[in-house]
């Protein structure tokens, strides 16, 4: 194995303050404080936009005068590192690897760098160019054939610049240890131009799975889609299983994962293969999957995300031993599937193996902040669950929003001891329909509870409005249908705010966020007929205008003829406008009732059970078409509409009553305060006369 020495350039190396912090292994504010508080800190060589560039050599010399704290010295394995300057130069050497990308492909550089680090760990001796082959033979002689073959593949036909890689690895591994060394080399993937970057499974997900697993003594762990081990590696280091298996379809990633595990001192059986169609006898006590790719091309095959993930759920269960557990990380939209299996089962239910669905807190990913995730827990046996087909639904997002520290530990306890799980954040159900915990946790209470609450409210109102207290009801159990199944959901229109007019009766009235949130009265804003697109449609009388954001807001457009502004939407009851205008046909025969009225629909949509339906990593929105409504008979809808109309009339009268009282009080106090009125007092008290 031979290589040519790279040419050493004499150009000045420039670094930003962010790179100073990175290479010196301090936080970014520390580097800023160095520059701001120390007049002798090197001046910027030049300014590029808002970034200042500094001479790396000058920064290193300045940092030589700053010794490392005792705690940092104790953690360093390399006794040669005494100052921040030493640490900075070590980091600077790593950046120098980026210069090689102009002559060697980034993926090849990364593979050689990680292979050299692994060989340095296995041989426990400095590497030389002439001794690489002998080192690989020593590894094979120790019985590590798979590792030796991977090293030979990666270190064959070495590219130019390997000598620089060798120097960096020989300095880095003894200095920080194999595990930290390989992680630092992996962080250089972007600078090297490598496409084999690490898949970033959030650290919180690894901690949650570790908490769910508990003690892993005597257990084996399998990751059938390991990639570079972003899920497997931290999990294995946390729970210390007795055996580790990993697989991936990408041969290059398999070798990189093997090198990474070697550097961390972990033994594992790593193989290349397509786990989705693997019929081998590989089984494990724990299976973890963060699918890095899908077996279908959604752009050409039009396959929804649920179908893409279903094979991973089936594979995870197939690899499980009896009493084992599998954990599958999926994007939240996969929990809502339009395609169901016989019996209405959700495709991700894995034929009854699903045990728990945990909706994870938002913004777990540092770079995919707009994507929400859920963790699915599978098991081949009920293991303490009430029935084999029972599924525990947990909204960890709602629980974490309460500010609870260590929420993943609490959630893990709920899954392990489901009978102790709080009803506020968990519920039981079957793997049918939507698996979204926010769709399941709708505040449903028993008929006995609801009836008792109604009776208590009726007793309270009886003192003032006896008629309102006389609404006969009885307990019953209902089915549900979604808004999308029952009605037409129409989008709102986008309009330039500059086109919206105020108090102009010549235009079309608009209903938008301001009207639905009560900022402006309905009818106070309008838009010219020439300012809307030809495709814009006005509302029909009786249309329901709805806004699904942090909470649901809805109103009835009784007159119609309005333009609804996005993000508000329109829910149209089929046939209601015609029924309202012509309740009987030409022959005097009553038309059939449409089965719903706008007043009843608004009341049901704004009921407490729909208060927490919103989802979305950045902006919370309610999927209106999936909101559920109870099945009501037409006669019950008509009677309920009459009752709600009575409530509205009495509420308006009560508001008028309170307004009149407030007006009298304000006028009396204002007159006295201005010295214009006097309250007449006689021997019997305050007179009704004034002056």
UniProtKB/TrEMBL annotation:
Keyword Transferase annotated: yes
Gene Ontology molecular-function annotations: DNA binding; N-methyltransferase activity
- Signal peptide position in this chain? none
Record keyword Transferase present: yes
Q: Which domain of life is it from?
A: Bacteria
**Could you tell me the keywords of this UniProt record?**
Methyltransferase, Transferase
Tell me any Pfam family this protein matches: N6_Mtase
Q: Name one GO biological process term.
A: methylation
Domain DNA methylase adenine-specific positions: 195-397
UniProt xrefs under PANTHER family: TYPE I RESTRICTION ENZYME HINDI METHYLASE SUBUNIT, TYPE I RESTRICTION ENZYME HINDVIIP M PROTEIN-RELATED
Q: What is this protein called?
A: Methyltransferase domain-containing protein
Source species taxonomy: Bacteria, Bacillati, Actinomycetota, Actinomycetes, Micromonosporales
